[in-house]
Design a protein that fits this description.
Layout: H1 3-24, H2 35-47, H3 51-60, H4 66-79, E1 97-101, H5 108-116, E2 121-125, H6 134-145
Parallel strand pairs: 1-2
Helix pairs in contact: 1-2, 2-3, 2-4
Length: about 150
């Protein structure tokens, strides 16, 4: 699948999600969401899925395989999220991470994929006993990922 076809498919997915959100949830309110963020999250989930779940995700994302999704994500991260500020262009940031309950393990190949293709942070978290600490754990990661400064 070439880049143009992948972009076209991602646009179709974004428009179908927008149509659904606007028709059901945001009819009389304001709504902000990132189609790219949703596509990346669903692509990461697809990369770790198999069987009927994988088939459904590939169908929804209009992709032939996880290899196509991963290749597309890698190209998006390299192009869309590159720092164009020195040339007068925009500088976009994307907080992308995968948090997994620490009692579970991930395949090394999935860890490598998430890190290399998606440029995502991967962390083990104690969701079972320290779930109330999760917001304080994630906030600094998002701030660092977005390269932002904040005042306490």
């Amino acid at each position: 699948m070439d880049l143009r076809e992948s972009i076209s498919n991602q646009t179709d997915v974004a428009l179908s999600i927008s149509k659904l959100l606007l028709s059901k949830n945001a009819r009389d309110s304001n709504l902000v969401y990132s189609p790219l963020s949703l596509h990346v999250v669903l692509s990461i989930i697809a990369s770790g899925s198999k069987g009927p779940t994988l088939d459904q995700l590939l169908s929804f994302l209009r992709s032939k395989s996880t290899d196509h999704l991963n290749s597309f994500a890698s190209q998006l991260v390299a192009v869309v999220l590159s720092d164009a500020a020195p040339a007068g262009g925009p500088r976009l940031s994307f907080a992308d991470g995968v948090w997994v309950e620490q009692s579970l393990s991930l395949l090394p190949s999935f860890k490598q994929l998430v890190s290399a293709d998606y440029k995502a942070t991967l962390a083990s978290v104690d969701f079972q006993t320290k779930v109330t600490l999760f917001p304080s754990f994630i906030h600094p990661l998002v701030v660092v990922a977005l390269d932002m400064f904040y005042i306490k």
